[in-house]
Structure formats: C-alpha cells, structure tokens
C-alpha cells in the first residue's frame, strides 16, 4: 500500500497515536506478560496439596492417625466428631473418618478434594486389613514441555490479550475521538468512512504481530513453552483473530456517545468470553447444551486454534472451522459498523 494513499496515512496516524500513549503500551505488552509471569510462577513445579483428614476420637484413632499421616498427600489429625464435622463444613478438612468395625466416611461429594481423600483413605484402610495388590503399577510424573498447565495457559492468555487490546485499544480510541469532537472535525474532510475504520483494524493488526512474537519469546525464555507447530501459522491466526475482534470493537462503539456507554458494552462483550472461552481452563468443562454457543465464540476459536498449533503442531489449513468463525465475527460486524457509524 502506497504510504501517500489516504488509507496509508490514516494507518500511520493511528500508529503514531498509539506509540505516544505509554499506558496503551503497558496494557498491550507489559500487562499480559505480568499475568503470565504471575500464573506461571504459581503453577510451575507446584507441589500437590496435602489433603487434611479428621479422625474421630476412638481407640483405633491412635493407630490410624500416624498411619494416614504417613501416606503421601494426606495429613491426619484426631478430634471429636462435632469438631470434625465443623472443620469439614468450613473446608479445613476434606474428610471425616469415624473408626469402628464398619468405618464411616463423612465427605462432601461436591468437593473434588473430598473424593480424592476418600479414595486414599479407603486404600489405606484396605491395606491395613491385609489387602495385597496383584498388579504392580508404576507412577510417572509428566513434566515435559507441552503437557504442563503453563503450556495450556500461555495460548489462552495470548488470545485474551489479543481480544482485550483489540476491543479496548480500538474501541476506546474511537470513543475518545468522538467525545473530544475530533470526529466532528474529520467529517468535513474528503476522507472516506471505510478508509477511516479500516485504518483502525490494520493498525491494531500490525501491533498484534509484535505482541504475538514478543509473547512467544517471553514464554519460551521464562517457562520453556515450546512451539511444536509453525510460528508463521501461529502468527497468522493471531493476526486474523485481531482482525475479528477489531471488527467487533467497531460494531460495539460505532454509535456510543460517551465513555460510560462504551465501557459497559465492551465489558458485556468481553466478560462472557473471558469466562467461557477457555482462557484459564478448558471450555469443555461447561455443560453440553452450552457447547454450541461456546464453540461459536471468537475467543474460543482463537484459543483452540492457537493451542492446536503451539501444542499439537496442527497446520493452519486444518483449522479452517476456527478461521471461518473468526472471519464471520470480523467481517460482518465491520460492514454493519460501516453502515451505522456516526461521526458525532
């Protein structure tokens, strides 16, 4: 594109405006890295938590407490039944054991820790009764790059960062120009509306390329998160995702008159995707009846595609459903915004 072309000049205008805003640079580049650093440190090489078990006072408790306490992953303490039930209710213990001829286990079935503690306690009690395992099992801990939580987290954080920087960076800039009466001045120029809106999307996509490469290098250096697929495919998909969220941002703020309205609309769009689209945990955890909606969200498509390329080495052509979904969310909102955009 010729730099003297109106669209080229508008893109340069947007890039200069962005580089003159230190706060914008922080939220686009620094904040996602700080988030990844904090979560990566929290979840990298994290030891399994000790599950607390309350053993109710009884003659057998004197033997059971040290036996359970010696089990890797369990910590046992002796107390009355009332204190044990109260500790279970407050979440201080995962299970209450009442010894006897038929031991009773009191556990909250809604707590995953309680179900795990139940299995471990039952296994220990059966061994005390003389159970012999006829199959020898070998335990292998997975620590290889590509199979850790941080490997799952990094593509999700990058997708979240692309969504946030596109929605807020692009949308907020337009609202500020409208409330500052700058758009009112621009309407008197021979500039085409399409060139003006397209310059926002192009400028944001150019920044997205830098953001993606910077984020990948950061994850590789600090957490040894490896790229098993093509870096070019990974970058192109992230670029396409930035375009999708750019079109969505234009639609959200195309008629917003003030910052309060724009902020509310952007939160309304971004918050459901932040929760549902698999940023911090797999989107498959949600009910089956909700999956068709979740899978059609642009952030879900972007996160799934980025993870497939980074962790599985999937080629970009095999991700055509995600590419199609992102295209729908980018192009259709852009043309609707082009139709209903108001300068003042």
Automatic annotation (TrEMBL):
Q: Which UniProt keywords apply?
A: Membrane, Transmembrane, Transmembrane helix
Where does the UniProt entry say this protein principally localizes?
membrane
Mind telling me which residue stretches traverse the membrane in this protein?
A: 24-43, 152-175, 196-219, 231-253, 265-283, 319-341
Domain called ABC transmembrane type-2: residue spans: 118-344
Q: Does the keyword Thylakoid apply?
A: no
- Where does the record place it? Membrane
Q: Does the keyword tRNA-binding feature in the UniProt annotation?
A: no
GO cellular-component term (any)? membrane
Report membrane topology. Multi-pass membrane protein
GO molecular function terms attached to this record: ABC-type transporter activity
**Know the name of this protein?**
ABC-type transporter, permease protein
Q: Which organism is it from?
A: Hyalangium minutum
């Amino acid at each position: 594109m010729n730099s003297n072309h109106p669209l080229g000049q508008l893109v340069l205008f947007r890039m200069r405006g962005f580089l003159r805003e230190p706060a914008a640079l922080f939220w686009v580049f620094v904040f996602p890295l700080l988030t990844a650093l904090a979560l990566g440190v929290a979840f990298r090489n994290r030891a399994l938590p000790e599950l607390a078990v309350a053993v109710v006072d009884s003659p057998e408790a004197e033997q059971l407490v040290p036996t359970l306490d010696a089990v890797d992953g369990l910590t046992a303490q002796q107390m009355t039944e009332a204190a044990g039930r109260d500790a279970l209710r407050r979440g201080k213990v995962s299970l209450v054991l009442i010894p006897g001829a038929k031991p009773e286990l009191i556990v909250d079935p809604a707590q995953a820790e309680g179900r795990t503690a139940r299995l471990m306690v039952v296994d220990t009690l059966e061994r005390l009764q003389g159970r012999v395992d006829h199959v020898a099992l070998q335990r292998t801990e997975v620590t290889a790059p590509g199979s850790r939580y941080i490997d799952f987290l990094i593509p999700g954080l990058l997708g979240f960062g692309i969504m946030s920087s596109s929605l807020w960076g692009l949308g907020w800039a337009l609202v500020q120009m409208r409330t500052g009466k700058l758009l009112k001045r621009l309407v008197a120029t021979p500039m085409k509306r399409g060139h003006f809106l397209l310059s926002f999307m192009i400028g944001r996509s150019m920044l997205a390329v830098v953001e993606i490469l910077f984020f990948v290098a950061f994850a590789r250096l600090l957490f040894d998160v490896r790229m098993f697929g093509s870096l070019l495919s990974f970058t192109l998909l992230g670029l396409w995702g930035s375009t999708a969220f750019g079109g969505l941002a234009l639609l959200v703020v195309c008629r917003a008159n003030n910052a309060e309205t724009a902020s509310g609309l952007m939160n309304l769009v971004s918050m459901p995707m932040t929760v549902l689209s698999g940023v911090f945990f797999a989107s498959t955890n949600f009910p089956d009846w909700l999956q068709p909606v979740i899978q059609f969200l642009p952030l879900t498509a972007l996160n799934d595609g980025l993870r497939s390329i980074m962790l599985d080495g999937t080629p970009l052509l095999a991700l055509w459903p995600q590419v199609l979904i992102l295209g729908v969310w980018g192009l259709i909102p852009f043309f609707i915004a082009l139709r209903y955009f108001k300068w003042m």
